Amino acid sequence: VMLFVFVITNISWFIIIVLGAFCLSCGLLYLAELVEEHFTLAKKILKYTIFFEFILHIGLLLFTPLSTLTIFTGIVAHIFYLNLHQSFPSTPLLSFPFLSSLAGMFVSQYFWMRTFWPLMQFSLTDIVAFMVIVVWLVPFSFFISLTANDFTLPSIQNFSSSSSSS
Fold this sequence. Notes:
Elements: H1 2-37, H2 39-63, H3 68-85, H4 96-116, H5 124-144, H6 156-165
């Protein structure tokens, strides 16, 4: 009897994970389409998000007993993101701003995990919720916008020059 319940539970978890991944991929595709259509608005939102993260890190520095080194690592990572933001929406994957932002994200992730993991004062959901806002929000936004660039839709000038040449 318990084996039957165990099998049903595992099948059920598998279905939940597959459907959750499908919903997540649909949401990511929709967000990528929005960024592609409205990249100037997306650039402004991303800039304000980076500044919001700076304020958040300063608040963490002033009002929490968290590691100063960890908070400064997050601030440096967001400085790299601000540098990467200048070339938005076209993000050359081998450029210094992209590679430094990638390194900053991994280093910041490492330091935050090193801060929270040994403490275990918080539940895993609390840690993930904190990480989504403080560590992953801006890199995730850049990840979504990788498909957007200013050459996706033909411009009027390109259309007129190609029609006159035929």
